[in-house]
Every structure is written in structure tokens, then in C-alpha cells.
TrEMBL record:
SUPFAM superfamilies: Glyoxalase/Bleomycin resistance protein/Dihydroxybiphenyl dioxygenase. This is Glyoxalase/bleomycin resistance/dioxygenase family protein. Residues 2-118 form the VOC domain. One of its GO terms (biological process) is response to cadmium ion. It comes from the Bacteria. Pfam families: Glyoxalase (PF00903). Coiled coil: none annotated. PANTHER family: CADMIUM-INDUCED PROTEIN CADI. GO terms for molecular function: dioxygenase activity. InterPro entries: ArsI/CadI-like (IPR049789), Cadmium-induced_rsp (IPR052393), Glyas_Bleomycin-R_OHBP_Dase (IPR029068), Glyas_Fos-R_dOase_dom (IPR004360), VOC_core (IPR037523).
Length: 133
């Protein structure tokens, strides 16, 4: 695995970017009107801010692991399915300004974990018919 991925919900993107730039000591690698992405090499962290109109309770959108190859997606999915976890597929989907192969599993408390491989960047947040975090 290459990066741990954490996505949180925020109501004010500018203030959140300013805060996390100070915390992480780096600028975001991608900023859109409703989204920002920080990529830290050490520790390996892909951290995203996802704008929502209202945020209450738990601010976590989801957790995830970014892998380096499409083959890793298949291997992790098969491994987790053998362990009895249902994996929700989203192969060749456009989400978070990227074309990705991904799948999701959910922990006992309802926290979603995403395993994803980024094929290429996209100019759109998501394709209308596709699911997206």
C-alpha cells in the first residue's frame, strides 16, 4: 500500500485549507471549488477536504487506502471477500476529480473504507451516474 487516505467533511474550504496547510506544512496538490487534496509523503497520507452545506456529529467522510496498481485492487478485494466482507465495486468510475478503480468495505460501526487506484486526473468531480464519496 502506498498511502492511507482520509476524507473529512468541512463547511468552509478556505479556512480548512489554511488550517491544514499549517498543520501539515505543505500546500494542497489539488484545489477545486468543493474539494481539496493534500498528499503527504511521510507519513504516506492522501487527505481530502469535502465541502458539505452542513456538518454535524462525526466529521469523517470516509477512510481509505490508495494503491499503486490495478492488480492490487483486485488482490485486496479478493482477500477481503474471502474474509467475509462484502465489497461494493466502483470500477472505472470518476470521483474526486480522478478516474479510479475502487471498492468499499464497511466496519462494524458503519465507517466506510475505500481501496482505490487512480488511473488519471479528471476535470469533473464525478460523472452524474457514478457514485462518489
Amino acid at each position: 500500500m502506498k498511502f492511507v487516505h482520509v476524507g473529512i467533511n468541512v463547511t468552509n474550504l478556505e479556512k480548512s485549507i489554511e488550517f491544514y496547510q499549517k498543520v501539515f506544512g505543505v500546500s494542497p496538490v489539488k484545489v477545486k471549488a468543493d474539494y481539496a487534496k493534500f498528499l503527504l509523503e511521510s507519513p504516506g497520507l492522501n487527505f481530502t477536504l469535502n465541502v458539505r452545506n452542513e456538518v454535524s456529529g462525526n466529521q469523517v467522510n470516509h477512510f481509505g487506502f490508495q494503491v499503486e496498481t490495478a492488480e492490487e485492487i483486485t488482490a485486496h478485494k479478493e482477500r477481503l471477500e474471502k474474509e467475509g466482507f462484502f465489497a461494493r465495486d466502483e470500477m472505472n468510475t470518476t470521483c474526486c476529480y480522478a478516474v479510479q478503480d475502487k471498492f468499499w468495505v464497511t466496519d462494524p460501526d458503519g465507517n466506510e473504507w475505500e481501496f482505490f487506484y487512480t488511473k488519471t486526473d479528471s476535470e469533473v468531480h464525478k460523472i452524474e451516474a457514478s457514485a462518489c464519496c
